[in-house]
Amino acid sequence: MQAVLFPAPESIRIERVPDPTCAADEVIVQVARCGICGTDVHIYRNEYMSNFPVIPGHEFGGVIVETGKEVADFQVGDRVAVDPNLYCGHCDMCRNEMANHCLHWQGVGITRPGGFAEYVAAPARACYHLPDAMTDAQAAFIEPLACVVHAMKRIRVLPADPVLILGAGPMGLLLVQALRRMGASYVAVVEKQPARLELAKAMGASVAVPAGAEQDAALKEVAPRGFGVVIDATGVPAVIEGAFRYLRPRGTFLQFGVAPNQARVSVSPYDIFHNDWTIVGSFALCYTFLPAIDWLASGAIDVGPLVSHVAPLHDFADVFAKFAAGQTLKVHVHMG
Ligand SMILES: [Zn+2]
Ligand SMILES: [Zn+2]
To answer: Which of 2, 110, 131, 309 is the most exposed place for a label (fewest CB within 10 A)?
Structure first.
């Protein structure tokens, strides 16, 4: 089959590789669409917990073309999405409702072959049936939206809380919609790209502020005492370090964006103490595929406007470079 390979950090090849083989508890999925994600860029730069060589891709749906002999819940022809986070189910973390911290965690497209390929092997227990009406584009958003659902479970949004989101990339734009659904009265967004500011407003942001010299004054005007929730959706250390000045007392800071794993920021422990702040992380997802599927299937979350490019597999290197340079929103790669 054709696949994208990261043979080593900072290197991309598109080449023929052997088709995956199907273990007894696995299925083979013929990939329809797979989304390019900021995590893929971190993997490419060796800033994440991946192995090389790796076939990346962890945001995909497709059709089952083979089932292992122990698989009972899925048949050839079923459309599915795959939760790329593989939980063992029997370690202390899995058995304590923290499966995303599984001691034997494996990631499809991270530590094992992923979805930028014609076929992927995945354990049946990681597969979710797709509603008939769900498009391949929506299916490729289940994984990122499941990360947003996990984040919504990690923080508490109180009615009438003003929320600030730093960054209106595809994840920031999903967060805007999710927070409106969660009951945030007021969602402010800061973003440096003008086109994304308009989109943030179309997706439900109350105000969209251009990043830069004027941003502090604009945010002070809309939330004079600061925001109840501040979310970093950039992963940029300088943005994260500056985020705390927008947090009001008793506020919650959510680290949602993925920063390079060697990055450091400086935060005042006195400020954390004195302001009763809560600092929350949100890693990947944790059995949140079902609510994500429901949010998409019901139309509660609109992902159509978030896809800026759809490209065939052989154009991967080109669209990946554009994505990494911030010149796109979500990019979907199709296989055939
Ligand atoms: Zn992702
Ligand atoms: Zn486990």
So the answer is: 131
